[in-house]
Amino acid sequence: MIWKPHVTVAAVIERQNRFLLVEEETDSGLAFNQPAGHLEEGEDLIAAVRREVLEETGWQFDPAAVVAIQLWRRNPGASSFLRICFAGKCHSRQPERELDAGIIATHWLSRQEIASLGRRLRSPLVLNSVDAYLQGEKHPLSLLKSMLDLDHA
Q1: Is 6-143 assigned to CATH 3.90.79.10?
Q2: Does the reported pTM lie above 0.90?
Q3: I want to staple 44 with a disulfide (CB 3.0 to 4.6 A). Which of 65, 95, 134, 146 is the partner?
């Protein structure tokens, strides 16, 4: 068997000292997460995070920086996730847009409110990413190189 982590993207979106989170249904009950999801085949990372934010929140997202590249696994028997976390701004909300299945609501929460959610966070990466953002961990998007469908001759 070949081991492969799930590749996901996430967005830290801050406005007036509050962060955009989604409340979503999971196998373990309701949880709070950044807008996030899986990279789809043929998609680059920036397109993936734009799509996920739109699908989960109804907001258009402009990524401006990479906050972190995180490798996470809940326990030795669980799947591993390679998560690329972006920071950026939202604009052009589409309130009539139907959100992804499982998304209950969106919330703008302070860092303290996020921390108080404790085990209701989807993973420790949620607060970790907010803290990294607040500590100024922002790397240029030029760090990412997409070479999809390039013919190597």
Answers
A1: yes
A2: yes
A3: 146
